[in-house]
Design brief:
Layout lengths: L1 H4 L1 H66 L2 H7 L7 H17 L3 E8 L4 E4 L7 H15 L3 E8 L2 E10 L8 E7 L2 H7 L8 E5 L5 E5 L4 H12 L9 E5 L8 E7 H4 L1 H34 L1 H8 L8 H37 L3 H14 L4 H9 L9 E8 L2 H4 L5 H22 L1 E6 L4 E7 L7 H22 L4 E5 L9 H12 L2 H4 L4 E3 L18 H13 L3 H8 L13 H20 L11 H5 L4 H41 L7 H7 L4 H12 L3 H19 L4 H7 L5 H12 L3 H13 L1
Parallel strand pairs: 13-14
Antiparallel strand pairs: 1-2, 1-5, 3-4, 4-5, 6-7, 6-9, 8-9, 10-12, 10-13, 11-12
Length: 757
Amino acid sequence: MRLQHSKKAQTLIVMLLLTSLCITAMGYAVYRIATDTLAQEVQSAYHVSLQRTQDRVQNYFKQIDQSVLQFEKLPALESLIMPGAEENNLEILTLLETMLRMQTSIDDVDNIALYRISNKRLYSTNHQVTAFQEDYGAAIAKFEQTDKNYSFFNLTVKQAPTTVYIRKLPIFQGSKALYIIIHLNQQFFDHILGSSNEAKGNYFILDEDHQLLQNRGIMDTSRLMADVVPEILQERPASDKLFTAYLPPSYNGWIFGFAIPSEELFTKINGIRNVTFILAAILLALAVLVTILSTNRLWRGWKDIVSLLDEPAADTGTIHSAKKAAHRDNEFHHIYDKMQRIKETRDELKEQVKELTPEIREAFIRNMLQKGLRSQEDLDKCERYQIELLSGGYSCYCVEIDQYKSMSGIYSEIDLYYFRYGLSLVIQEVMDGKGKGVITRHGEGRFLALISLEDTAGSLDASKAAIHEAATTIRDFIEQYFPFTVSIGISLMRKDYAYISLSSQEAEDALKHKLVTGTNEIIPIEEFRRESDGAASALPISFRELENDVIYAIRSLDPELAYRYIDRLGELQGLRTISYQWLQSQLTEMVFSIYRTVGSTLRKPSAEPLMSDLMQLATLEEWIAWLKSQVVDLLSSELQQEHRKHMLKVSQQLTAYIHEHNEEDLRLEVCCKSLNVPTSIGKQALKEVQDTTFSDFLLQSRIEKAQSWLIHSEMSIEEMSSRLQYSNAQNFSRTFKKVIGLPPGQYRKDAREQLRT
């Protein structure tokens, strides 16, 4: 008996324990979801950052190679390349001056040296160096062992870090007579990777031998080599203690990477996790303590515990009642309050999880009701958004609040919001009681809903009755408990979910008969179908479904698919249960419906066919051929022309913008944003109309402007290259010659001579 009387106290303790465990599990689940999502976003962000770093390095060495190519063309250098040629001091001085200009034009270069292999002499731009052979001897020796045309070394010479880039000269000849040595200072890596003091993690570069070339950050080289490099080389799985992002080998086999301790990356979220776990631990400890105390209390005096939970007896005195109330407050009130707060916290966590995808789910439901489910991708999305569709058949409701516009003058916007919200809950609950359903708003005071039923052994009439019963329940409940009534349109029942859009349209069409039937009514569309003698029920095809299929194929610009749908009309050949007049009426109605639906998406809808032309079609073969040529081909052609006009307009706007702003550092995304055009549409327009890419068109635009400047102005090549966003005049001249076939100076001379003649 004591155990029975203590049931409320035991239930309270068990709820407290379970709630604590739920908070722990919920906190851990939210923590895992948040960390995984954050890790993916951070991975993507650092990949972009590393890609930019890689591009900067490649561009830097391209600049060096371009300067070396220009340097190789000097006559003084050509004499040194000749074997056995004597050195001319004047030529050596010319080379040193050119090398000095190269040094000043390239960032982070301390010295440029030229090493002649035949006599092992080295010429340098840094006149403070007294023993060049000793300074670069180790780098030259290491380079000769690699048997490569160029290499990058990070050495220690005389206890000082030395970074050199060595390339054999001449570049495009088999025999190499010279080495050019470019000595970079350590600021080169600071500019590329950042300084160690600024970085929270570590940016690093691995060379082609998978050795650590440079490292900037808080972790030392030994830790990177022990924990990060093996992970990159796939010698062991990734560590949970470190977050790593890296790019595959690129320039010269280098790997650009970033690593940061996970506790530093997830500092804030770990703090939230720890607070959640500490709170759960405190609650769990409190639950255990309450369990011990309550158990002790139960064994000491079960009557006192029972008196706290039972209602006071009628003959109990005031003092005894006050004592029991005090006991109740002392023993249970605080515990109940804490349990209530825990429950509220749990509910808040659940709501936060539910709010992750509601807007996307709502948009998908609207799209599903408007277009149907025609691909596996659509079905996968249904599963992702937890939309369950049963296999026994489905139908659509269109629920409309009667006299909704007049209600806006009586009730406030807040009241109308709660009315709509309550109506949606009623519809959802009733549909879930019969099967499975989804609902979405469809204008002011109107809802579209989809209800699907289980596949049972019952007849089709039983399923229709269940759908009508659910609609009746919705209408009666609203009429009884809400200050308004609703009218409900019901579509035909189907099983193929590709025709959801057709069912939702039928539900809307049913409501159009509200003027005839009146308000607060259930209006099935099948009551208004005009099919004589039930001929449609015996047909192998449905004209409404066929119309929906053809519209889908035309909008998809797939005439072949539309042809296959229209060929299904051939299944009617030989049926004696239908009359030609009825069939002609159905086909005519389908033609006009297709024209109106597809024409609504065109700026200038095409003229509908003449009824006299349709009346001349006497056979099913003629109808099929006419539908293909005058409906599918014509509408598809107009849609394609509309598409081409749109692409042409976008292309004209985009090319005009490029021509006007080609002196700026343009990007396709920036151009499209300025024109309020999606980037994908701008890219597609350039490809379809101009048959080119954005970068190629921008290059051509800049070359055309350069041609105009060369002919009609005295602007220097250097100024042109700067205004057209080239790093130097050499790059501009080389690009100009590649496109036009002549260097800029020669082009200016030839063009002006032609103008004089």
